[in-house]
Amino acid sequence: MSRIFISYRRDDSAGYAGRLYDRLCPHFGDDNIFMSIDNIEPGLDIVDVIKEAVASCDVLIALIGQQWLTITDATGQRQLDNPNDFVRLEIKTALEHNIRVIPTLVQGATMPRPSDLPADLKKLSDRNALSIGDIFHPDVDRLIEVAENVLSKSVLQESSGEPPDKGEAENQSNAQKFNLKNIRTLLNEGFTDSELRRLCYDEPDFRPVYDQLSQEMGKDLIIDKLIEYAERRELIDRLLALTKIRNPRKYKKYQPYDNLTNSPTNKYGDLQGRIQRASKSRPTNGLLFGGVAGGMLLVIIVGLFYYFYPDDVGATETPNPAPSQISIPVPAPIVLPQAITAADGSPMVLIPAGPFTMGSDSGDKDEEPTHSVTLDAYYIDQYEVTNARYANCVEAGGCNVPGCMERYMDPDKVDHPVVCVSWRQANTYCQWREDRLPTEAEWEKAARGVDGWMYPWGNEPLPDEALLNFNENIGDTTPIGRYPDGVSPYGVYDMAGNVWEWVNDWYRDDYYADSPTQNPHGPETGDTRMLRGGSWYNKERDVRAANRTRLIDHPVDRRGVSDGFRCVGEPGH
Predict the structure, then answer these.
(1) Cβ-count burial of 556 within 10 angstroms (0-12 exposed, 13-18 middle, 19+ buried)?
(2) Which of the listed residues 75, 102, 133 is the one where a domain comes to its end?
(3) Do 122 and 262 fall within a single domain?
(4) What CATH number should be reported for the domain holding residue 51?
(5) What is the value of pTM for the model shown?
(6) What would the pLDDT profile of 9-43 be if each residue is shown by its tens digit?
(7) Which domain, by its residues, includes 52?
(8) Distance from the CA of 532 to the CA of which of 10, 66, 410, 540 falls in 20 to 30 A?
(9) In terms of DSSP H, where are the helices of 58-135?
(10) What is the mean pLDDT of residues 49-53?
(11) CA atoms of 440 and 122, how far apart (whole Å)
């Protein structure tokens, strides 16, 4: 069953539909997206298949371009006036089944008026629309966030159902609701292999399992490990810390753990309150482990708790009545959201606190020695800063224009990374939005993870055109977010290739020999500033995560067509 249905007219918005499909599939999974009747098996009734697919989906995305209303058939009749028109049939079926229909405007189109629509589609004009403009990826991020919210509710409804009465929850064991077979099914259906691997990667004790993964057995190994940790009573808090819940109040109807007592002596304390406090620390964005994945994970957490520890439900441990005994509440740990949105609208992802392996003993001399560095938690832009976002700073009077005006003003490059900026311009932009440039160590951890990977995606495969923009294979910059298979362990895009990225540090070739092991900030002074990541014209060796290069901080009219940047932010800022 496909959960998202893309409705479009080929002569109106086929290009947008294909591009949107390519964005949604890696995020939600191929099986969850229905787009083309070309995939319908020969001999099946197309109308029946379309009706069934729409009726069983949770979200219908109706792409509306400038010709959506007016396209005619061979007889000159407007296609939308034909009751058998596929687009009309799709939207009509969704409206009849009370499915969330999201009008998505492309090519600068506007919402149709009720008078422009057939009678069975007039309700479409009442739906709030989204627009996908020239800045494609950020606009689609918003669409993904909305879809995730809808799918999260659906997952919770299907998996949890209505909660039992409070008395029943306190007096009955709920373990039968979630046995191990059901938990395994939820994990298999709710997550892709890559999502489960990233979940394991984020937790230190899961990394040995991650390293043992094979293409055939990866998911089963991970699920076994998750259940093993549940048996040790550690999984619930760990998964809560990894799960983004934007607004737990909307899940309240389906939360069996509402009946857990919030007593100081309760073993788990105020679980719901802990999630709510974390969600209020900064606004989140629909990215890694959010939306449908977050909702599914929440259900699994609750199921694991009820399966292994039914006696804890509704129970409060009674302390011995000793006069001198005092129960002191233990403060709940601060749980940071996995993703936030910067002041300029850029999505940012969390890089958790802890050690990682920095440098390389098999690269250039200035990358030696390999050493362990421990960093505090921070957020980093998921994408490089684009021409469009930089233009907002220029228009606000906070930034100077880049050196390459022809690139900066090119309407086809609004979602390309801004280039021809000096270190000072990059630093000024980050400060303008109340963030900063990353340190060299922060950049490297976000790029390679904790285990010293050679590239963002691992030690293998070697760089190729499916993973990154490098080696002049395209000959120019590419739009942000184009290479989902090349993301870092934390979901950060383009940390290899596309453009070099300025970092905050001064350069010194022997800095690693005596650098601090805790939150290093580079040498006190220097003659050149650092750039990391390689660019669209660099070869394989230069796009390694440990590779270092430097440039003099040129004046603001620097014309380097391969130098860009991204920003980092402090938790709670």
Answers:
(1) middle
(2) 133
(3) no
(4) 3.40.50
(5) 0.49
(6) 988 888 888 888 888 887 887 788 888 666 677 88
(7) 4-133
(8) 410
(9) 86-96
(10) 90
(11) 55
| DSSP code string of 199-223 | HHHHSGGGHHHHHH--TTTHHHHHH
Q: Could you give phi then psi for residue 72, rounded to 5 degrees?
A: -115, 160
Task: Clarify whether residues 384 and 487 are in a common domain.
Answer: yes
Structural domain includes residue 323 = no
DSSP string, 22-37: HHHHHHH-GGGEE--G
Residue 378: strand pairing partners? 351
Last residue of a domain, one of 312, 332, 364: 312
Beta bridge partners of residue 380, listed in sequence order: 349, 568
Tell whether 324 is covered by a domain: no
DSSP E strands, 255-387: 339-341, 347-351, 354-358, 371-375, 378-381
Does residue 470 contact residue 536 with C-beta atoms inside 8 Å? Answer: yes
Residue 111: name the closest of 62, 57, 58, 60 by CA: 62
Q: How far apart are CA 538 and CA 499, in angstroms?
A: 9
* CB within 8 Å of 89: residues ≥ 6 apart: 47, 50, 51, 83
Name the band, by pLDDT with cuts 50, 70 and 90, for residue 255: very low
Verify that 383 and 525 share a domain, yes or no: yes
Query: Cβ contacts of residue 314 below 8 Å, gap of 6+?
Result: 166, 169, 170, 171, 259, 260, 261
